[in-house]
Amino acid sequence: MPIKAIAFDAYGTLLDVYSVGALAEEFFPGKGATIAAMWRDKQIEYTRLRTMCDRYADFWQVTGDGLDYACEFHKVVLTVDQRAALMGAYETLTAFDENHAQMTRLKAAGVPMAILSNGTRAMIDSALQAAGLEDLLDHVLSVDTVGKFKTAPEAYQMGSDAFGCDASEILFVSSNCWDICGATWFGYHTIWLNRAGLPIERLGVEPMARAASLHDVADYALASFSG
Amino acid sequence: MPIKAIAFDAYGTLLDVYSVGALAEEFFPGKGATIAAMWRDKQIEYTRLRTMCDRYADFWQVTGDGLDYACEFHKVVLTVDQRAALMGAYETLTAFDENHAQMTRLKAAGVPMAILSNGTRAMIDSALQAAGLEDLLDHVLSVDTVGKFKTAPEAYQMGSDAFGCDASEILFVSSNCWDICGATWFGYHTIWLNRAGLPIERLGVEPMARAASLHDVADYALASFSG
């Protein structure tokens, strides 16, 4: 089926969430990578628990909560300044190098594009600005508007609403396989940008397509686009 | 507030979910512990994603799915026989040594007791029977009845319904901190059996009490019981 628009996940997909690991390593020598990994895991875990129990707190809050847990688990003392620096790094995450060129290609072809992210509007805006991507997007959608994180259907609904078309006409792009499974269940045309070469999640659902880079994603989108 | 009954989580709380690690180690030398840990993580992750998206599949299914993912991630080949043996071990998980004596103490004092578990009825029954605990319980409650896993409110509701009293009159016992947070949000009187000495989850909610062993839990329950 032809696609009319693209919705991108932000964290992990356009923005490298593990780029904060270098700063964590500087603060906690030998433990930076494992702290950064647990930080990310807890952040995601907290979004799910809060959504299941209808106890929403925004992504800035759960990101800080995940950091605090990861530091306590690893028995490191996180000073106020270190916490501010790590949270600040999360606001200006490194974007993947290829993003700008590939999104510019899509923009030039007239493909409407959105971000659909768990992040707050402020977090997404500052990260996109730091990455120079903000002018390429037609919509910046934060789940903060609906008070439920992905993979809740209410979060995915925002994409169809913004573009005014059915989810099946929107290509949903994420490097997070769980996000792709949720989006596929919801009804999106999905492509899993499997940057890390991970196994597919065993959830009984498959993405429509797979890609190893945003270049592959853009090729796929341009071949399927009917503007 | 006095308590009228106790609801226990099963996996991790009465049954040692990492006891399958020894068999995994036998099959995959050097990788047993990490495979068992990822198996458990993925099992739990899948319960949440399926619940958020209303795509329930029972705990036997997600347990097998988690095992398959963990093996593929660790690049080990899982034969049909090995899979059957590991899944079989999950049906007869080792119970913690102290369980029988402490639950017998509670039973003798007339405290009504239930299991409230993500497991299927068949999985819980076989594990409780192997552990010799089945005669001590008044109710065995599986979320399979409601088609949503904990921490969904519908799952916690089963405990109040079974005992016919308010959640605040029931002591909810779990070694899984996320389960304790969900149960506290729901309204249970909660005690976190922190067997592993882990940090508390940063979810903005605290259990009413903490314990290091089931002996502590029984002491606490008997001091608060009004039969």
From TrEMBL, chains A, B:
Enzyme Commission numbers on file: 3.8.1.2
Enzyme's top EC category: hydrolase
The keyword Protein transport is annotated on this UniProt entry: no
Keyword Mitochondrion: no
Coiled coil feature spans: none
Keyword list, A-Z: Hydrolase
Catalytic reactions of this protein: an (S)-2-haloacid + H2O = a (2R)-2-hydroxycarboxylate + a halide anion + H(+)
Pfam families membership: Hydrolase
Gene Ontology molecular functions: (S)-2-haloacid dehalogenase activity
Record InterPro entries: 2-HAD (IPR006328), HAD-like_sf (IPR036412), HAD-SF_hydro_IA (IPR006439), HAD_sf (IPR023214), PGP-like_dom2 (IPR023198), S-2-haloacid_dehalogenase (IPR051540)
Functional summary from the UniProt entry: Catalyzes the hydrolytic dehalogenation of small (S)-2-haloalkanoic acids to yield the corresponding (R)-2-hydroxyalkanoic acids.
Protein family membership: Belongs to the HAD-like hydrolase superfamily. S-2-haloalkanoic acid dehalogenase family.
Record protein name field: (S)-2-haloacid dehalogenase
Lineage: Bacteria, Pseudomonadati, Pseudomonadota, Alphaproteobacteria, Rhodobacterales
